[in-house]
Amino acid sequence: MKPKAQITMFTVVLGVSIVLNFFSFGRLYLNSDDDPDLTWTEDAAEEAEAVASIKCSGHGMAFLDGLVSVEGKPVCECHACYTGPDCAGVIQGCFIEADSGDPMFLEPFWMQHASGSTIVLAPWHRMSYDLGDGSLISKELETRIHKLHEITKNANTDGKYIVFGAGSTQLLNAAVHALSVDNDPAASRVVASTPHYPGADRILDSDNYDFNGDTYTHKNDIGNFIEFVTSPDNPDGQLRKGILEGSNVKRIHDFAYYWPHYTAIPYPTDEDLMLFTLSTLTGHGGSRFGWAIVKDKAVYEDMLKYMSLSTYGVSKETQLRALKLLDVVIATAGREMFDFGYSTMKERWGKFSKVLSMSKRISCQQFDPLRFCNYFQELKGPTPPFVWLKCEREEDVDCNAVLKLVNMIDWP
Amino acid sequence: MKPKAQITMFTVVLGVSIVLNFFSFGRLYLNSDDDPDLTWTEDAAEEAEAVASIKCSGHGMAFLDGLVSVEGKPVCECHACYTGPDCAGVIQGCFIEADSGDPMFLEPFWMQHASGSTIVLAPWHRMSYDLGDGSLISKELETRIHKLHEITKNANTDGKYIVFGAGSTQLLNAAVHALSVDNDPAASRVVASTPHYPGADRILDSDNYDFNGDTYTHKNDIGNFIEFVTSPDNPDGQLRKGILEGSNVKRIHDFAYYWPHYTAIPYPTDEDLMLFTLSTLTGHGGSRFGWAIVKDKAVYEDMLKYMSLSTYGVSKETQLRALKLLDVVIATAGREMFDFGYSTMKERWGKFSKVLSMSKRISCQQFDPLRFCNYFQELKGPTPPFVWLKCEREEDVDCNAVLKLVNMIDWP
């Protein structure tokens, strides 16, 4: 090759090399301000991404604290009726347990919103019993809950107090104590309208107080009553108000399902004691987080006292998680999550109704007509996360036995 | 320049450029196996490291869910008696609240062990109410607890059952229910030996059952008793056994302080119902995690039932955190944490005793002589996390008033 041609070739190769160098140096060092090197969080982040990358066919998941192989590697934990190392196998003759709900339908939503709602929890995060100010309740989380109800238009929280609990189960116990005469649960009768979900009487009929059954049977009774009102009701999906009247009647309103993915929101509720839970809002039942919105200061203080004696408040890591999840919900004024939730529920009801319409033996509850939803600003029907089945044939006295024929098990 | 010299120069520059390219490409792409690029965890990791890097002079901390500035940036939350943006200011005339404990002395240990015990919590982690198998108790965590007692030699857990609770507070309530005649807490008398910590009677004298005061006053009584035994006892630091005898006496043993940082471990305890808590073991009081070790299957099942009705188990994020923390403890057979904990407590007792020895007005409890610790394999004295003060002058009837003179406030 002639020297001139050689020089031209060198110039080109050198040019390419220098350009590549600029590119590499740029990627390595110039982005460092936006993208700092991680130190103590890196191993945990890699571990979490590795566990999340394990494929379980959409019928299971591997967890950081889950089952591990003999080599100590996390493995898939399969959903009911699935099996195999990647959960791709179907267990023949498997029974579906239809006895209680687990709002896992929102799991795909959270997988789509991983980066905004992931938490890196340092081992020194909130080690103290309280939050520095002697309180067991995160002020930041309290603010988010007010904001959440404001954007969802499902409850008026103005001037009301907020108590945190480990799910609405604990808050219900706290509320019964606080509303009882002299804080003695035995001095009041606790009632709930039928139909109610099978879990309600288990919880209400606990050691601490007697559950006196259906509200309607006490409509004309005199005495101290605590009326438990679930709205929308589980299992019939109807919006409900209290039934008993009089100054000796106190009410606990369970609004676990009063969110736009399950029902039209015709008005913001404005009751004296309202319970909500993260389980049905974001699908995080495992976190055991709920809150009560309380009008009366004395009731609020009694509930705080109960929480303090029962568990000394709610775990700080749970409060942090709830905060991060609500931040994601609030960021789009709830639209992304409620749109996802409502459309998923609607699609499932579509499929379910189609299958049920083919049967003359089993039917389900009739729903209220469409109502105007102040949140979605349009007419919506109920899309509850439960169904109330009925066996239509007179000879089918044992409806559970009929369900068993199609591999479903109801409340044992 | 002559073409030959030009070629030589080009060759050298090109050589350097290519070497640099190899270096950069190597750093950018070849390390990818050891150090994979993070995706959805990166923002959270950066946020956590940024919050952790905020300097608060060792007298405070900034938190992910903590106070924020008007610009929305996390700011220092100062410990009691400190103030200012970096907590460097001392509040003059500030009172020290000596009414209850908060085992924050282990915080520096966890800051030194950040990378092994940090958790990256995906928003889809354990959303379900249960752990897939219908259980509310992580099998992995249960295994670690058995291992922990085995290495610490402080409790025999062989063949015993484990129940998780939100701190030992909830487990104490669960145990009283389970041990009561017909599960009715009113049918048994609950007693504890004096001296006991001021919180004990608040908890024991709750709505659900009556606290019948000091065990000694019932030594010759007949009837159903539940005896609450704290060992080492708070506040006197002594190892204790039960006092009442007979087949109608059931015992709940609170071993919150039976760990090598607080006491010599002369033998593994082997009682029927033993309570432990993460608060005093690792210092994570805010997590509300404790466990009961139970010999009798029926009592275990009753406690599980109570846990299910009270809060439907313990938050899954808390269980994951406890697992990670115990893994760090177990990795060195407890040595690193217990060495740190014991030497910190010993140093503090040294300083405290020196100050106290200068006073003739206030004294503290006398300690048991040194005992052989099976864990440390040497003689150790007690180094409890509490002190039992006594006012020596006859005229100092109100000991609290004396403490107030030196800016300390006891139980209000």
TrEMBL record, chains A, B:
Segments forming domain Alliinase EGF-like: 39-94
Family matches, as Gene3D superfamilies: Aspartate Aminotransferase, domain 1, EGF-like, alliinase, Type I PLP-dependent aspartate aminotransferase-like (Major domain)
Cofactor(s), names only, from the UniProt record: pyridoxal 5'-phosphate
GO MF term set: carbon-sulfur lyase activity; transaminase activity
GO annotation, biological process: amino acid metabolic process
Superkingdom per UniProt: Eukaryota
Protein name: Uncharacterized protein
Family indicated by similarity: Belongs to the alliinase family.
Transmembrane segments: 7-30
Domain Alliinase C-terminal intervals: 96-405
Keywords, comma-separated and alphabetical: Aminotransferase, Membrane, Pyridoxal phosphate, Transferase, Transmembrane, Transmembrane helix
Source taxonomy: Eukaryota, Viridiplantae, Streptophyta, Embryophyta, Tracheophyta
Signal peptide stretch: none
